[in-house]
Structures are given as structure tokens and as C-alpha cells.
Request: fold
Amino acid sequence: MPGVMLPPFPDDVPKHPLLVVDYQLVKAGDSAEIDKLWDAATKLGFWYLKDHDADAEVHAMFQMGKETMQLPLDEKMKYEQGDEGSNFGYKAAGASAVDSAGTVDSVEFINVAKDDALAYPSVVHRTYPQTVNARIQSTVKPFTLKAIDICNTLIGALNDRLGLPHGKLNELHCIDKPSFCQSRCTKNPPARGVPADKPALGQHTDYGSLSFLHNRLGGLQVMPPGTSEWCYIEASAAPDGQPLPGHAICNVGDALALFSGGILRSNLHRVVAPPGAQAAHERWSLVYFHRPHNGVPLAALARDSAMIADAVAAAAEPGKYSTGETADAWLMRRVRMRRTKNMTGPDAWRQGLGTEHDVRAQTAVAREVPAY
Ligand SMILES: O=C(O)CCC(=O)C(=O)O
Ligand SMILES: [Fe+2]
Reply:
């Protein structure tokens, strides 16, 4: 957390570098910077985003998260998201499974819907703890609006590179329509002694389009394409602001991977204990999840782009880019089937999968869990 001195990221663990994309240059339409964004979004699907100008909002959101997690558990449980696939509200540690054996996660988080933040004091989806309400206008709403702006700018740049009609992807993320877009603040307790490969948050691909992530300690890992090894991603900023001040981590989720016929990459990732001496500390992260609005079909936009049509035609399993599900159904299925209560075995695990079965990658996962 801000203000607490934490140990640096160790240099004796496998670390995956990320391209650094300058948000201001992308916003200004700089084609070399958009090339870099394209490279990152198509190859690993993760990058650092610098100069996003949201540091003050991010800091305040971490405060909101801290105030919320300090509430008594029974107060937080009044706002638990439940087992039906809703993704808004509080999730207690242990409420989600990290594997098909039902091993439980160790993170707790609070998810605040974009729609509730923007409509407050009206309620669109649900109500939240007092600590959230107290900061909705001053903290959650400004963060939400800034994150939306950033995500829409990045999506707009990717849209044009995909050969889609200008504005097409942005139309599928209409701010005025209900969606599962949300902010999430996550806490993982100190993990000293926890095995380095025990997931705090199970392996997954993100459900939506773009994630705008801020973390302060290591623990996030990706499985790079074509490998079966987990690699750490260094935190977006160390607690003292070094070595990556003002950086976020951005990653592509399933919706953009599907819209683009697999050209944009939704990469598998997970969270484990922070490495080395960092494990002795609480781990906090903050994400804004930018997702298509409810009702948008998750299918390749092949009719709108020759590049996407060609990618689908060249795919080993072209059918997987027509999911038959809407963005909201996709998310609810995946959330529901990861709830500990619903984890009845490998079949339930399979039912909660997203694009992890992408044949280009994740060989270990493919071995572990047959593609559906
Ligand atoms: O905490 C992190 O660094 C990543 C969290 C994450 O992957 C998620 O919430 O989807
Ligand atoms: Fe994620």
C-alpha cells in the first residue's frame, strides 16, 4: 500500500519483460507507438502503459479498497457476490476455486460496477458497503471515467489496425448501456511460507476486452505463448514509486480476442505469492475491467474486416470464434463455474473456461484440461 516501504522485486526469479506503451503518444495517433501497442496486443497480450495520468485516482482507489477490507467480515459478507455468476460486490477469500480439485483462492476483493458508480445514488445492479458509498463520487466515479477513456482510446487504435470501420469496437462498449464493466480492488494476505506455485488467484484469461491493472508487488504470472512455464511480471510500480512510476499493466481479454478472430491475444495468467522477501507483505491490486455492454454477441467481426475474416478462415478451429454467447452470458458462466460451491470436478472446471483452449498456446493447460 502507498506509504509502506516494501522490498524490491527479486532478480532471481523468471521474469517476463513487457513492452512499454506511451499512452499520450497513442492518444495523439503516433503510428510508431500504435505499432508497439499492436505488437504487444497481438503477441503476449500484456504491456506496461505509461503516462496514463491516473495515478491520483489509482491512489484513492487503493484507499477505498483498504477501508473496505478493514470492515468486519460479517459486514463485507452482506455484499458478497453470490454463486449465480454475478460479478459485482464483495468476494471473500476461498469463495472461488483455483483448480478442478476445488483448491480455494486466498484473495478477497470488492468489485464496483461502472453502472452503479456513474448512476449513484441510483442503484443499477446492487448496493455496496458504506466505505464504497462514501467514496463513489470522489474516488470511484473519477477512476471509472478515466479508465473508460483510456480503454476506449486503446481499443480505438486497435480497431483501426484490425481494419474495422472506424469506431466499430467502441460502439460495442457503450458507456450508457448496462455492462459488467467494473473496478476491482484485491487484497491477498501476507504469504510467507506459501509455496511459490500455489495460486492466490487461479489461472484464467480475463472475460472482457481490456484490463487496466495496477499492482505494487510481484505475484502476477503469465504463461508465455507456446510454453508451459509461468513467468512473473514485475509489478507496475514499486511502493516507493520505483522502478516504474506512473505505469499500469494492460492486458487483452477474451472479448477482444474473439472479436478479432484470435489476432489479439487473451493470455493465460494467475497470481501467486509475491516472490522472495515481498511475500511477507499484503499484496494489493486494482483493475478496471472494460467489457462489451450486455447483449453483444461474442463472435469474430469477420464481416467488418477482411483481416479478421482471413484470420478466422486460417484458424484450425474457425468455429471457436462464434461462441453463441453474449458478453454477459460468457462472463456469468465463467464466474459461476469458478465458485467453490459449484466446483464439482473437471467437468465443472471445463464449463468455466474462456479462450484458454486457444491452440496457439498454453500447452500445459491443454494437457491438464481437454478443450471443450
Ligand atoms: O492482481 C493482479 O496482479 C492481477 C489480477 C487479475 O488477473 C484479475 O483480477 O483478473
Ligand atoms: Fe486477470
